[in-house]
Amino acid sequence: MPEGPEIRRAADSLEAAVKGKPLTRAWFAFPELKAFESQLVGERITHIETRGKALLTHFSNNLTLYSHNQLYGVWRVVKAEEEPQTTRILRVRLQTVDKAILLYSASDIEMLTPEQLLAHPFLQRVGPDVLDVRLTANEVKTRLLSAKFRNRQFSGLLLDQAFLAGLGNYLRVEILWEVGLAAQHKASQLTDEQLEALSHALLDIPRLSYNTRGRVEENKHHGALFRFKVFHRAGKKCERCGGVIEKTTLSSRPFYWCPGCQR
């Protein structure tokens, strides 16, 4: 399932295709959204915001399209008027003179006024986004030590979007390996040095994934700048301590870790 970095890169692709261009066509599958089709023609998409795995498509008339891909939703960029052959069900089409962005299969879609946006239940519940450049490690540390989160095991906490939006399973695995912590720990048990390391890793690793995953350094051929150290590497040697990486299940998700150096 895509995590915050993948959702943000998808939003970047959508913005590159249609941002700032007048919409020539808007189409929605759901009857409750049909009235907005005519209202959006001639308007522009000003920017596309991510809140964890939710996308907020902001229009120049101050409306915002809220969409959450959940398990099966996916956005596509196509040429204007192109109708791709697919078994997926089209939910949204937003088109400019040369490109269109299409949302397939998602069911959690709403059009919001500024007031509704501020009061939206999911957006009220979700924590700050790890890819928000305004979010600092000190603020993350404060959240870790708050009464709400300080006694939660990291196995579940690092999947909870109310703690930090945009985290997910592969990030949970890589963050805990980076700081050498086992998943059963809680923030209340850590030293200040461990808290500092974890607070930074909770931001640094998602941002590294967003900025570099799938890209390689120029003139080098050793693979992507972001690479998994433990995720999907069960049975292989840990590059830090030489121990054997193990796989288990935590919070209903596969979890990879090194017993030799994650304590």
UniProtKB/TrEMBL annotation:
<feature type="active site" description="Proton donor; for beta-elimination activity">
    <location>
        <position position="53"/>
    </location>
</feature>
<feature type="active site" description="Schiff-base intermediate with DNA">
    <location>
        <position position="2"/>
    </location>
</feature>
<keyword id="KW-0326">Glycosidase</keyword>
<dbReference type="GO" id="GO:0003684">
    <property type="term" value="F:damaged DNA binding"/>
</dbReference>
<feature type="binding site">
    <location>
        <position position="125"/>
    </location>
    <ligand>
        <name>DNA</name>
    </ligand>
</feature>
<dbReference type="GO" id="GO:0008270">
    <property type="term" value="F:zinc ion binding"/>
</dbReference>
<feature type="active site" description="Proton donor; for delta-elimination activity">
    <location>
        <position position="253"/>
    </location>
</feature>
<dbReference type="InterPro" id="IPR015887">
    <property type="entry name" value="DNA_glyclase_Znf_dom_DNA_BS"/>
</dbReference>
<comment type="function">
    <text>Involved in base excision repair of DNA damaged by oxidation or by mutagenic agents. Acts as DNA glycosylase that recognizes and removes damaged bases. Has a preference for oxidized pyrimidines, such as thymine glycol, 5,6-dihydrouracil and 5,6-dihydrothymine. Has AP (apurinic/apyrimidinic) lyase activity and introduces nicks in the DNA strand. Cleaves the DNA backbone by beta-delta elimination to generate a single-strand break at the site of the removed base with both 3'- and 5'-phosphates.</text>
</comment>
<keyword id="KW-0456">Lyase</keyword>
<dbReference type="Pfam" id="PF06827">
    <property type="entry name" value="zf-FPG_IleRS"/>
</dbReference>
<keyword id="KW-0234">DNA repair</keyword>
<keyword id="KW-0479">Metal-binding</keyword>
<dbReference type="GO" id="GO:0006284">
    <property type="term" value="P:base-excision repair"/>
</dbReference>
<dbReference type="InterPro" id="IPR012319">
    <property type="entry name" value="FPG_cat"/>
</dbReference>
<keyword id="KW-0227">DNA damage</keyword>
<protein>
    <recommendedName>
        <fullName>Endonuclease 8</fullName>
        <ecNumber>3.2.2.-</ecNumber>
        <ecNumber>4.2.99.18</ecNumber>
    </recommendedName>
</protein>
<dbReference type="InterPro" id="IPR010979">
    <property type="entry name" value="Ribosomal_uS13-like_H2TH"/>
</dbReference>
<keyword id="KW-0863">Zinc-finger</keyword>
<keyword id="KW-0255">Endonuclease</keyword>
<keyword id="KW-0378">Hydrolase</keyword>
<dbReference type="InterPro" id="IPR000214">
    <property type="entry name" value="Znf_DNA_glyclase/AP_lyase"/>
</dbReference>
<dbReference type="InterPro" id="IPR010663">
    <property type="entry name" value="Znf_FPG/IleRS"/>
</dbReference>
<dbReference type="Pfam" id="PF01149">
    <property type="entry name" value="Fapy_DNA_glyco"/>
</dbReference>
<dbReference type="GO" id="GO:0000703">
    <property type="term" value="F:oxidized pyrimidine nucleobase lesion DNA N-glycosylase activity"/>
</dbReference>
<keyword id="KW-0862">Zinc</keyword>
<keyword id="KW-0511">Multifunctional enzyme</keyword>
<dbReference type="InterPro" id="IPR015886">
    <property type="entry name" value="H2TH_FPG"/>
</dbReference>
<keyword id="KW-0238">DNA-binding</keyword>
<feature type="domain" description="Formamidopyrimidine-DNA glycosylase catalytic">
    <location>
        <begin position="2"/>
        <end position="111"/>
    </location>
</feature>
<keyword id="KW-0540">Nuclease</keyword>
<feature type="active site" description="Proton donor">
    <location>
        <position position="3"/>
    </location>
</feature>
<feature type="binding site">
    <location>
        <position position="70"/>
    </location>
    <ligand>
        <name>DNA</name>
    </ligand>
</feature>
<feature type="binding site">
    <location>
        <position position="169"/>
    </location>
    <ligand>
        <name>DNA</name>
    </ligand>
</feature>
<dbReference type="Pfam" id="PF06831">
    <property type="entry name" value="H2TH"/>
</dbReference>
<feature type="domain" description="FPG-type">
    <location>
        <begin position="229"/>
        <end position="263"/>
    </location>
</feature>
<comment type="similarity">
    <text>Belongs to the FPG family.</text>
</comment>
<dbReference type="InterPro" id="IPR023713">
    <property type="entry name" value="Endonuclease-VIII"/>
</dbReference>
<dbReference type="InterPro" id="IPR035937">
    <property type="entry name" value="FPG_N"/>
</dbReference>
<dbReference type="GO" id="GO:0140078">
    <property type="term" value="F:class I DNA-(apurinic or apyrimidinic site) endonuclease activity"/>
</dbReference>
<dbReference type="InterPro" id="IPR044091">
    <property type="entry name" value="EcNei-like_N"/>
</dbReference>
